[in-house]
Amino acid sequence: MIDHMGFPVTHFARSKEFYARALEPLGFRVVMEVSLSDDGEDGYAGFGDERPHFWIGTGKPLAGRLHVAFEAKNRAAVRAFYEAAIAAGGKDNGSPGLRPHYHENYYGAFVLDPDGHNIEAVNHLPE
């Protein structure tokens, strides 16, 4: 349904590193980058598999907390995302596990990114 989405971040280089590390276990990487400065501190980075689906960039940071959920191929990928995101500086917002209040097989993990946004990896299949 969604082709791509993006939002501004407070510190582009820090957030780009966070997302590169956190999304790698899900099979996503920086596939397109637009630099707006010689030092790499301003610009846009698009993450995806073959083309960008998720973008971050410089700009006026959002007020409030945004929620983004990335599909994981299996529960192991959810756990790997969580571990990578925490190692990259994310803060725990819900360790990997079943969330049966959503549905029987909802397996997700939640971290807060450097700007405090709620980032999730989720798998809906029974293991």
Short description:
InterPro entries: Glyas_Bleomycin-R_OHBP_Dase, Glyas_Fos-R_dOase_dom, VOC_core. By secondary structure, the chain is an alpha/beta fold.
Low-confidence residue ranges: none
The appropriate CATH architecture is: Roll
Report the strand count: 8
Secondary-structure element order, as H and E?
EHEEEEHEEE
Q: Figure out the total of helices.
A: 2
Instruction: Describe the sheet with the most strands.
Output: 4 strands, mixed
**CATH class, please?**
Alpha Beta
Alpha carbon gyration radius: 14 Å
**Tell me, what's the shape?**
globular
Protein name: VOC family protein
Domain VOC: 1-124
Pfam families: Glyoxalase (PF00903)
Organism: Hyphomicrobium album
Give the SSE layout.
Elements: E1 5-8, H1 12-23, E2 29-35, E3 43-48, E4 52-57, E5 67-71, H2 75-87, E6 91-98, E7 107-112, E8 118-123
Parallel strand pairs: 1-4, 5-8
Antiparallel strand pairs: 2-3, 3-4, 6-7, 7-8
Helix pairs in contact: 1-2
Q: Keywords for this structure?
A:
single chain, 127 residues, alpha/beta, 2,3-Dihydroxybiphenyl 1,2-Dioxygenase, domain 1, 4-stranded mixed beta sheet, 2 helices
Verbal overview:
It is built from two helices and eight strands, in the order E-H-E-E-E-E-H-E-E-E. It is an alpha/beta fold and 127 residues long. It has a single domain (5-58, 65-123), classed as Roll (2,3-Dihydroxybiphenyl 1,2-Dioxygenase, domain 1), CATH 3.10.180. The strands form two sheets. It has a four-stranded mixed beta sheet with strand order 1-4-3-2, with helices on one face. 29% of the residues are buried. The mean pLDDT is 95.
